[in-house]
Amino acid sequence: MENKLVEKVTDIKSMTLDELKAYMTEIGEKPFRAKQIYEWIHVHLVTSYDEMTNVSKALREKLKECAPLTTLVQEDLQISRIDGTRKYLFCLPDGNMVESVLMRYEHGNSVCISSQVGCRMGCRFCASTLDGLVRGLTPAEMLDQVYRIQSDIGERVSNVVVMGTGEPMDNYDHLIRFITLLTDANGLNISQRNLTVSTCGIVPRIYDLAKENLQITLAVSLHASSQETRMKLMPIAKSYDIHEVLDAVSDYIDTTKRRVTFEYSLVGGVNDTDEDAKKLAGLLDGLLCHVNLIPVNPIKERDYVQSNHERVVAFQKKLEKFGINVTIRRELGRDIDGACGQLRRRHMRG
Ligand code: SAH
Description:
Layout: H1 17-26, H2 32-42, H3 57-66, E1 73-79, E2 86-91, E3 97-105, E4 108-112, E5 116-118, E6 133-136, H4 139-153, E7 157-162, H5 172-182, E8 195-199, H6 203-210, E9 217-221, H7 227-233, H8 242-256, E10 260-266, H9 274-284, E11 289-295, H10 309-321, E12 326-328, H11 342-348
Parallel strand pairs: 4-7, 7-8, 8-9, 9-10, 10-11, 11-12
Antiparallel strand pairs: 1-2, 2-3, 3-4, 5-6
Helix pairs in contact: 1-2, 4-5, 6-8, 9-10
Bound molecules: S-adenosyl-L-homocysteine (SAH).
C-alpha cells in the first residue's frame, strides 16, 4: 500500500477574523487579506474562492488546496403550500445530511438550524434521535445552513433558532464559536437578541452558557411538570433532575437578566391535564419566563398522540390563570414532514 501523506486542512469558515489574520501570516500572506476573505465568506456568502475577485489567483489556488471552503449542498427542498415554510436537506462535505427550516413571519425570516448529525438524547417523541448521534457539526457547517438559505431566498435572515436536529449543548464549543461568528459585526451581524438556543436541559452547560455574557434567548425543553413524567419522555432527566434544571435556569436568569423560554410539547394523556398545568405553574412561579406549548407532532415510530385543540387551549388558560406567560406555537409546514428529522430519515432509507 502506498504511504499517503495526509495534509492538514484548515477550516477557515470557522475562524474569527483575528484567527484568519494569524493564518494569513502563517502562510506568508499579508494580514489585510484576512478582512477581504472574511467579507467574501461571511457577508457576500460566496461558495468558492474563485468568486473572491480582489484576491490573487495564486492565493486562491493555494487556499483551495490547504483550506477548502466548507459549503453545504442543497439535496432537497420542500415548500409548504399552506404557509411558504421551506424545509431544506443539506449535504455536508463528508456526505452526511442535515435539515434546516426557513419560516416566514411578519417580523422577518427565521431559520431553524441543526447542531448535530443525529442526536443521542433519546427523547421519546423525537424523530431526530431514532438512529443516535453521528457527530457534532462544525461552526462552519452550522453557519452555512443560514448562509445557503439567505442566498437561496435572496432576503436577509433576521432570526436564527438552534432547534433543529441535535443537542446544541452536546456540541458546546462549536456552538459558542458559531454564535460569535453569526453575530459578528464584520459578518452577517445577526443580533444576539434574535438568536435562540434550545436545550433538553444539560445542567452544567446551562451554568457555563450563563457566564458567556451573551444576549441570546435560552429555550429549555421541559415537557413535564414532575420528575416522574419527565423521565418517561426524556432520558436526560435520569442524569439531571427537573429541579436541578430549574435551579440552573434560575441562575441563568439572575446572571443574564434574560427571559427564558420553556418548551412544553403536549402529549395526549401523558402531560396535558389541568393538574399538570397547575403543577407546572407552581414550578415556574416567580421565574422570568415564557411557556411555549407545542402540540406533539406524532412520528410513526412511536404511538404518542397529539392533545386535541380544546385540551391545548384549556392547558393554556389554566397556566394563564396562574399568571404564567404562555403561547401556543403556530404549526408551520404541516404538509412537509413537520417533525424534526423526518426528511433526513426519509432520504437515509431511500
Ligand atoms: N435538543 C434540543 C433542540 C432540538 S429539539 C432540545 O431538546 O431542546 C427542538 C424542540 O422540539 C424541543 O423542545 C423538542 O423536545 C421538540 N420536539 C422534538 N420532536 C418533537 C415532536 N415530534 N413533537 C413536538 N415537539 C418535538
